[in-house]
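In the design runs reported in the main text, the only information available to the sequence generator was the tokenized backbone. The following block is the verbatim input for one such run; it is reproduced so that readers can re-run the procedure and compare outputs position by position.
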């Protein structure tokens, strides 16, 4: 989880650094190409080519379209609003997943889940404090990014029933490279990173893969009720980074709203975990 926190923070700083010379589609293109190279090397080096299947390609593409959209909105948001505000709104992803799961996975929207969503929405209102003066494209982009990441998480849950993590990551990088190429090149112009920007682009590519690998591994080693409180420390860490590097003020309302969002998520995780423990084991 420490690796995940460092990686997400490094992505935010590097993304803001390279945004002066590259648009979000170009950043995603180069990030995905770096990912394709790394994942392909891992697949070939470990002899696991048979794990890369073409089953459920429709679900793979839908999942990756959600992630591509969310990531582009996130890359835009980190350049126009404080980093702490972006990360706080990103934590609403599980709330959106609760609302989307009945549509995609057929799960029931129970009253405890709905209550968690309502409390999380209260946290969103505290973070954004909506008014004509505070609402901005960056706020909407960060909120949209959270919805995109929620859709990605839901389809990932469906894919993990039959596909390996390596297979999911491989098609993630490949399809997003194609999407990035199409979106970045629709006007016939794709900017190449400058010599000064290349280190930032490489950091984004490596940190993106590392963050997801670390988070997935952590969830495999410990229950979500243990992992998620550690993940929440991303917010104060990025708030301090924003203050030191960009002189962004520490907004107590953002921290309060994020704490409420986290509390709603964590309470729901504890309830789901306890319910799973009480459920009778399947026979046979």
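Verbatim output:
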């Amino acid at each position: 989880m420490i690796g995940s926190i460092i990686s997400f923070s490094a992505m935010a700083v590097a993304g803001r650094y390279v945004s002066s010379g590259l648009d979000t589609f170009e950043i995603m293109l180069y990030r995905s190409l770096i990912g394709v190279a790394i994942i392909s090397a891992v697949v070939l080096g470990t002899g696991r080519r048979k794990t890369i299947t073409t089953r459920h390609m429709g679900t793979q593409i839908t999942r990756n379209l959600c992630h591509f959209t969310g990531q582009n909105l996130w890359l835009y948001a980190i350049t126009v609003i404080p980093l702490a505000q972006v990360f706080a709104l990103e934590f609403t992803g599980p709330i959106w997943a609760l609302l989307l799961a009945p549509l995609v996975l057929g799960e029931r929207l129970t009253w405890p889940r709905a209550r968690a969503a309502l409390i999380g929405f209260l946290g969103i209102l505290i973070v954004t404090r909506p008014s004509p003066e505070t609402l901005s494209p960056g706020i909407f982009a960060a909120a949209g990014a959270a919805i995109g990441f929620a859709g990605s998480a839901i389809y990932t849950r469906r894919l993990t029933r039959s596909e390996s993590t390596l297979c999911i990551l491989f098609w993630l990088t490949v399809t997003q490279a194609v999407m990035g190429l199409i979106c970045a090149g629709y006007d016939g112009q794709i900017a190449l990173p400058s010599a000064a920007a290349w280190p930032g682009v490489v950091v984004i590519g490596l940190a993106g893969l590392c963050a997801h690998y670390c988070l997935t591994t952590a969830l495999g080693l410990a229950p979500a009720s243990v992992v998620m409180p550690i993940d929440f420390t991303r917010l104060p860490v990025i708030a301090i980074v924003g203050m030191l590097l960009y002189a962004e003020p520490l907004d107590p309302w953002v921290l309060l709203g994020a704490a409420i969002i986290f509390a709603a998520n964590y309470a729901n995780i504890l309830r789901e975990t306890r319910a799973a423990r009480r459920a009778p084991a399947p026979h046979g």
